[in-house]
């Protein structure tokens, strides 16, 4: 997908107009949705992110992949103002995340395991609460909350406490809370984990419509197949550094994304496991 000016894009019917990112304050096309330079974070002696550079074009559906412990969650937490970096710069649509954190947070919707949900609220109350936190008026919040509960197949569970939700339902309501203020950038850490196939397909449609409407999505996932099908750009990171980045076709270079990932990251054992695990 090429950079797209939000106000030149035909609205996608999959996304209600009220949830499309607002075109009013659109920055110039050349401004990336997310620009990371020299990002670094260590936890004691463990360097989780090691001088990472990443540019996410506005209007892209961007996949972030890497092995366990590669630094994806740490990177996304720093990029969304949740975790302070040791070094480096992060800009969301031109706004320096760590100099103007309030403005940066208004531009972004985040789904992350690292964010505690107010799970003693019902699903409906939770989305409403997030909308009001973003300064939206009650009428708009109520309208969007209803639309989101429908889109996420949670209408009948809207009155249930989030603490009583299944893992997949919790993921979906957190996505609703991330979307309610119609952010310009959506950052989703493993959004499809625990989500059933029908809901996952509905969420994919919702996200594709959001991108068509001028939004940018960054999604971290361990499903190479999903990322290859869904994302127009991808970055592979390993040991806190960028190993490859570009359009999905550029990165996979004629092979599958999974093969390219294994080639770049390494670590295949080609072993059938210990003999004591074999029963015959
Ligand atoms: N709060 C923390 N304290 C100490 N070490 C941490 C902390 N958070 C992350 N790490 C370490 O930093 C490294 C990167 O972790 P991170 O969660 O960012 O990886 P990831 O790519 O998201 O992994 P996964 O795919 O398994 O979710 C790991 O070695 C992890 O153990």
UniProtKB/TrEMBL annotation:
One GO-annotated biological process of the protein: response to antibiotic
Gene3D superfamilies per the UniProt record, alphabetical: P-loop containing nucleotide triphosphate hydrolases
Biased composition range(s): Low complexity: 1-16
Single GO cellular component term: plasma membrane
Keywords assigned: Antibiotic resistance, ATP-binding, Nucleotide-binding, Transport
Highest taxon in the source lineage: Bacteria
PANTHER family assigned to the protein according to its UniProt record, in alphabetical order: ABC TRANSPORTER ATP-BINDING PROTEIN, DOXORUBICIN RESISTANCE ATP-BINDING PROTEIN DRRA
Protein name: ABC transporter ATP-binding protein
């Amino acid at each position: 997908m090429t950079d797209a000016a939000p106000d030149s894009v035909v609205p996608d019917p999959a996304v209600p107009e009220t949830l499309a990112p607002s075109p009013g304050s659109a920055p110039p096309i050349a401004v990336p949705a997310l620009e990371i330079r020299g990002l670094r974070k260590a936890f004691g002696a463990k360097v989780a992110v090691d001088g990472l550079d990443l540019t996410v074009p506005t209007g892209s559906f961007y996949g972030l992949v890497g092995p366990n412990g590669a630094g994806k969650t740490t990177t996304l937490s720093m990029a969304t103002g949740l975790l302070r970096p040791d070094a480096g710069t992060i800009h969301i649509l031109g706004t320096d995340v760590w100099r103007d954190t309030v403005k940066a947070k208004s531009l972004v919707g985040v789904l992350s395991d690292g964010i505690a949900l107010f799970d003693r609220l019902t699903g409906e109350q939770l989305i409403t609460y997030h909308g009001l936190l973003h300064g939206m008026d009650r009428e708009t919040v109520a309208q969007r909350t209803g639309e989101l509960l429908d889109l996420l197949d949670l209408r009948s569970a809207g009155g249930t406490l989030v603490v009583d939700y299944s893992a997949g339902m919790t993921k979906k309501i957190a996505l609703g809370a991330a979307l309610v203020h119609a952010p310009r950038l959506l950052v989703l850490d493993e959004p499809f984990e625990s989500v059933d196939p029908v809901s996952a397909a509905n969420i994919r449609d919702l996200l594709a419509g959001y991108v068509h409407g001028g939004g940018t999505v960054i999604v971290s996932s361990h499903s190479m197949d999903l990322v290859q099908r869904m994302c127009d750009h991808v970055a592979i990171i390993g040991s806190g550094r960028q190993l490859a980045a570009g359009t999905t076709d550029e990165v996979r270079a004629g092979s599958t994304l999974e093969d390219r990932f294994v080639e770049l990251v390494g670590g295949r054992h080609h072993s059938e496991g210990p003999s004591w695990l074999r029963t015959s």
